[in-house]
Write a structure and sequence with these properties.
There is one protein chain. The chain has 247 residues and is α/β, with parallel strands linked by helices. 32% of the residues lie in helices and 28% in strands. The longest helix is centred in the middle third of the chain and has 21 residues, at 119-139. The protein starts with a strand and ends with a helix. The structure holds S-adenosylmethionine.
Length: 247
């Protein structure tokens, strides 16, 4: 059954109003007609099975058949802070990170990020990344869409660290804590932020600054992962740690 995401205000009482690109998808692609059923989720994780009532050119009306209790989100909130990678790698990171349960993506620039986001073009890029996240969340049957935040500088990123239960910096050099140790310290509902360096990695000064901000250097294992692989390793480890049966 096709899944669509709406804003909370579009899901009122037992009526749902769908607007925007999804109207075209329902009417033209799915050739929806009154009585057809679909799943609609709001951005706060509430999902309902609904029945199409009225299909217009600008909006589609549906009525709720039943609220659903879907457990599809990771038990902890995972924010991936990603050093801006080259070319269109960030699109891949957003798509795969969404499938693996990422909550939020924060792109950042640092000493070795090659890509400098042009402020005039950033809004358009962020819109595209957010669209990729929505489509990947629909495909993965998630109950919420990850949020792609505006890009920040490294210093601003460090200032945000204390918002999380735990914040770590993935660092492939020596003297790091294991990711397993960090995950073992977290409980359902906690929040984890993971800083992933760009292709050129972090400078030693950046790692020292992160440690001063209370951010813990962690290892992602004995192999050097590409920047786009590192976040996926973390998300898979979180799922394995918290979602394996009999844990
Ligand atoms: N220094 C790396 C090298 O020698 O190629 C370049 C950085 S690596 C391609 C990109 C980022 O992925 C790193 O900054 C780090 O955040 C993360 N990373 C990759 N492998 C890792 C590992 N084994 N442990 C911790 N972090 C890792």
């Amino acid at each position: 059954m096709q899944r669509y995401f709406v804003k909370p205000h579009q899901l009122l009482d037992n009526r749902i109003t769908i607007t925007g690109d999804d109207v075209h998808h329902i009417v033209k692609v799915m050739r929806g007609k009154p009585g057809d059923q679909l799943i609609v989720c709001d951005s706060e994780g509430r999902c309902a099975r609904a029945r199409l009532v009225d299909l217009g050119t600008q909006e589609v009306q549906a009525e709720i058949v039943e609220m659903l209790d879907e457990q599809r989100e990771l038990p902890i909130h995972v924010t991936i802070a990603q050093g801006l990678p080259k070319s269109d790698k960030l699109e891949w990171i957003v798509q795969k990170g969404t499938e693996l349960g990422m909550t939020t993506l924060v792109p950042f620039s640092s000493e070795r990020t090659i890509v400098k986001l042009d402020p005039k073009k950033e809004a358009k890029k962020r819109e595209r990344w957010q669209k990729i996240a929505k489509e990947a969340a629909e495909q993965a049957h998630r109950t919420r869409v990850p949020e792609v935040m505006p890009a920040v500088g490294f210093a601003e990123l460090l200032e945000q660290a204390n918002r999380y239960t735990s914040c770590v910096i993935a660092y492939e050099q020596e003297n790091t804590t294991s990711l397993q140790t960090v995950l073992a310290s977290l409980r359902q509902g906690d929040s984890l932020c993971v800083l992933i360096g760009p292709e050129g990695g972090f400078t030693t000064e950046e790692v020292a600054q992160a440690e001063q901000a209370g951010i813990v250097p962690v290892s992602l294992g004995p192999r050097i992962l590409r920047t786009e692989t590192a976040s996926q390793y973390v998300l898979a480890a979180v799922s394995y740690h918290f979602e394996s049966p009999n844990r």
